[in-house]
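The protein record quoted for completeness.
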Amino acid sequence: MDSRHLLVETMSELMWERGYADTSPRDVRERSGVGQGSMYHHFPSKRDLAVAALERNVADLLPAASELDGPGDPMARIEAYLMRPREALKGCKVGRMTQDRQVREDPVLLAPVARAFAQVHRSWVGVLREAVAARQLRDDLDPEQLAHTLMAVLQGGYVLAIAQQDPGPFEAARDGVLALLRRNS
């Protein structure tokens, strides 16, 4: 693994663990083993490195969300996405960044986060429309609204799990929304 890739990978993990504000360039260098000169050769600033790490985190998130866009039965895709394994106690690599004031206040850092959530929202809306058209969900459900609800349940489930240091609240939220979807078919 080259030093640039190692720096991005390390920053990605540290931001997931600590957030942007609580991750220093020194932390990245120490964990990655990459020297200061090499770090600043690739990334002139912490912010530049953070943008690359955020883009990497988005790249990790979007393939999972693209499962919603795939072929096959829409409700099966919804259930598979909701039930896929997640590290509930670590939270969402992308959603976690919205809790960091420095990320929220910097349009450049926030842009990849907002873009990722917009893409996931579009994927949810698409699969929900398919499920309505296939009569797997009631036709009076609003896919746009329901997509926001599903995203909020998952992100909120992470917050509850982290707060209680127990994956149970995430699993209960996910299972609860899945039960509601099944009742609305």
Notes: The longest helix spans residues 107-133.
